[in-house]
Every structure is written in C-alpha cells, then in structure tokens.
Specification:
By secondary structure, the chain is an alpha+beta fold. The chain is 30% helix and 21% strand. The model has no long low-confidence stretch (mean pLDDT 77).
Length: 141
C-alpha cells in the first residue's frame, strides 16, 4: 500500500514538472526538441535547465561529444543534462535525482531518454536516480 502512495506522489510530481517545462518552452520554437532537466536533492528542487541550440559545449572542440550510430541524426548544442550540471556547479551528484522531460511542438510530453553522451557524463558524476519519459510513462534509467 505504501509503495502505491509513493508511486502516486511521483506521478503527481512528474505532471507538475511537465507543466513547468511547458511554461518554459519558447512560443515560436519549432522543428527542434525542447528538453528540460530538473535536479532534486530529496524533495528540494536544486536546478532546472533546458537545452540550448545556440551554444556549443566545449567538448565539441575535442570531438568527445559525438553521436553513436544508433542515435541517428544529432543536433549540436548544450543538452539539458549538461546545462543542468553546469548550472548546478557540483562535482559529485551521487545523492541527487535527475528528471528528464521533453515537450514536443504540440506541447505534449515526448520520449526524453538521455543520449549516450549525456548518460556517460551523468554516470561519471554519479546520481541517485535518473527518471525520463519513455513515450507513455516515467521510468528509471
């Protein structure tokens, strides 16, 4: 019974985060995905960051931020996960929970699994939990 309560509370939190992400999405943005990463420590919100297609991450200069063959088309820029880490400014994140959201051009949630590179970066800094939307529900990575 208690686990059902925890699950219900998580779903309520994710729906609220979707509303925040929808509010942050630029009105005239089209053709590109709008990703948001939210970082929590226990129940305290620490950081909200979104992707940015106008800036390049320094890793691009060194060729370390390249797509894998399975990812197909790759759009350069700072992904929301890295933008959140930069904004947060912490070296160790093993006690933090990351939630990835993506809002499509219709204002609806869409698949938001981190790309291979972002997942590698998050694994290097560590994390307690990483949640993302898989197209129908929120799941832990």
């Amino acid at each position: 019974m208690r686990s059902l309560s925890i699950f219900t509370n998580l779903m309520i939190k994710f729906k609220r985060l979707e509303e925040i992400a929808k509010a942050l999405k630029p009105i005239h943005q089209s053709g590109k995905s709008f990703h948001v990463t939210v970082i929590f420590k226990k129940n305290k919100l620490l950081c909200i960051a979104n992707n940015n297609y106008k800036k390049l991450h320094p890793w691009h200069k060194f060729g370390r931020y390249l797509p894998t063959k399975s990812e197909g088309v790759y759009t350069s820029g700072i992904h929301s996960e890295c933008a959140a880490l930069i904004k947060l400014g912490r070296m160790e994140c093993d006690d933090l929970t990351f939630v990835n959201l993506r809002i499509d051009n219709n204002g609806e949630p869409a698949m938001s699994k981190p790309c291979t590179n972002c997942h590698r970066v998050l694994e290097q800094v560590g994390y307690k939990q990483l949640w993302y939307y898989n197209g129908s529900d929120y799941v832990k990575l």
